Amino acid sequence: MDQEKLDHMRSVFNKLEDIKNNQESVIDKINHVITDLFQHPDKKLEKAMEDAHQKSSDNVDAVREALEDYEMRINKLENED
User: Fold this and answer.
1) pTM here?
2) What residue ranges carry the coiled-coil annotation (predicted)?
3) Which of 1, 49, 60, 70 has the smallest number of CB atoms closer than 10 Å to its CB?
4) pLDDT above 70 for 21
């Protein structure tokens, strides 16, 4: 097992998790804006937030899939002797 490569992969994995968490935080903030718009409707802003929400959700899904794949690759490398 190449420890240097494994350490690098773990570092990248942690960064990917951070990206996913940040993107989930963005979704939460977008949801707050959407909720606020119930009180003071703005159709143009609502549409923009709905679009942003969809794009952010797609990003979370893409990063989550990459994380799962990368984690399997890390696990495989860890189990090689």
Assistant:
1) 0.84
2) 53-80
3) 1
4) yes
Please name each of the domains of the chain with its CATH number: 3-79 (1.10.287)
SS3 letters across the chain: CCHHHHHHHHHHHHHHHHHHHHHHHHHHHHHHHHHHHHHCCCHHHHHHHHHHHHHHHHHHHHHHHHHHHHHHHHHHHHHCC
Report which of 68, 39, 66, 33 is spatially closest to residue 51, judged by C-alpha positions.
33
The four Cα atoms 5, 22, 68, 51 give a dihedral, to 10 degrees, of -130
Write down the mean pLDDT value for the chain.
95
Mean pLDDT, range 36-49, rounded to an integer: 97
